[in-house]
Write a structure and sequence with these properties.
This protein has a single domain (about 55-340), classed as Mitochondrial carrier domain (Mitochondrial carrier fold, Alpha/alpha barrel), CATH 1.50.40. About 75% of the residues lie in helices and about 0% in strands. The protein has 11 helices and no strands.
Length: about 350
């Protein structure tokens, strides 16, 4: 090692030591200032460049997790409805009430919260990324529009929502897969159940037994579903608010009504992809090592042929009841968090 390199290393070390000493010397003053005016210290911290960039992601994830805690039982029932009667066109048609009754009869009320840890992890990843990316994209697009002397348009909002939804769905697919596995485990015979202890156990066992790439099973319909859902929410929420602008409804009532309309169309566009995603993520290998479905299009063709086209919309009411309130709770909590962290 040459002497010049050694000298450079020594300089860097001395600079680091001096910087550390400076921080240590300033710390008591900073702590004293914070104790005297904690509100100002909090505002200063929240307005650092790092926190301004991180807050959209943090607030989005917290809002999604709060909504999931409220909606998890409905999601559990939705998944069980989609998996009932797999491969059979005729037979008994389960209802949300009958599925709920069966779950409670087989265990206890808290079984409706099976997979909550995976649901929370999914929101911590998916919604954090979705709302964070969307906010980041919107700021960039707004800045570009202002530089051109115009206002940002609906097409740009839709593009930001579609892109953010697709990217976030791909990143969050492993947690989504673990959620489906945990929720569908109770449908198997007791001897074949995995009895996952939690989302961490599910992810590790899936990786160990099936390979790490299996964590992205159903990624294609998951991404398409997220993009369809975001498109439905953005396009029809915007249109509904425009139509209700001159109505006798107040601002809050207009927002709630528009959210309900957006939730319907988001559910209508995304449910078939959600259905296929659930089937692909639930499947496990047969004794001969093969899977029931080879992929997205194979699953679509088999369900269409063996179970009929209406099977894709089984549980629409439950799905809508899950999508609309979840979106509303997420947006309300996110708005509140954004307000208190301004």
């Amino acid at each position: 090692m040459s002497s010049s390199v050694v000298e450079a290393a020594k300089r860097k070390a001395n600079e680091a030591v001096n910087a550390a000493k400076g921080v240590a010397e300033d710390a008591p003053a900073a702590m004293q200032k914070a104790s005297e005016n904690p509100q100002q210290a909090t505002r200063d911290f929240l307005h650092t460049p790092f926190m301004r960039a991180a807050l959209p992601f943090v607030n989005g994830g917290a809002a999604g997790m709060a909504a999931t805690t409220c909606i998890q039982p409905i999601d559990m029932i939705k998944v069980r409805l989609q998996l009932a009667g797999e491969g059979v066109k005729t037979g008994p048609k389960p209802t949300p009430l009958s599925v709920t009754r069966d779950i409670i009869a087989a265990g206890k009320v808290m079984d409706l919260y099976t997979g909550l840890s995976a649901g929370l992890l999914r929101q911590a990843v998916y919604t954090t990324a979705r709302l964070g990316f969307f906010d980041t994209f919107m700021k960039s697009l707004s800045a570009s529009a202002e530089a051109d002397g115009r206002r940002i348009g609906f097409k740009e909002r839709a593009a930001a929502g579609l892109t953010a939804g697709g990217l976030a769905a791909f990143v969050g697919n492993p947690a989504d897969l673990a959620l489906i596995r945990m929720q569908s485990d109770g449908l198997k015979p007791k001897a074949e159940r995995a009895n996952y202890k939690g989302v961490g156990d599910a992810l590790m066992r899936i990786t160990k037994n099936e390979g790490i790439t299996r964590l992205w099973a159903g990624a294609t319909p998951t991404v398409i579903r997220a993009m369809a859902l975001n498109f439905g929410q953005l396009a029809f929420f915007s249109e509904a608010k425009a139509q209700l602008k001159d109505s006798s409804l107040g601002p809050r009532a207009q927002t709630l009504t528009a959210s309900a309309v957006a939730g319907f169309f988001a559910s209508f566009f995304s449910l078939p992809f959600d259905f296929i995603k659930t089937r692909l993520q639930k499947q496990s290998r047969k004794p001969d090592g093969t899977l029931p479905y080879k992929g997205f299009f194979d699953c679509f063709q088999k369900v269409l042929r063996e179970e009929g086209p209406l099977r894709f919309y089984r549980g629409f009411g439950t799905y809508y009841v899950r999508i609309a309130p979840h979106a509303m709770v997420t947006l309300i909590v996110a708005d509140y968090l954004n307000f208190i962290t301004k």
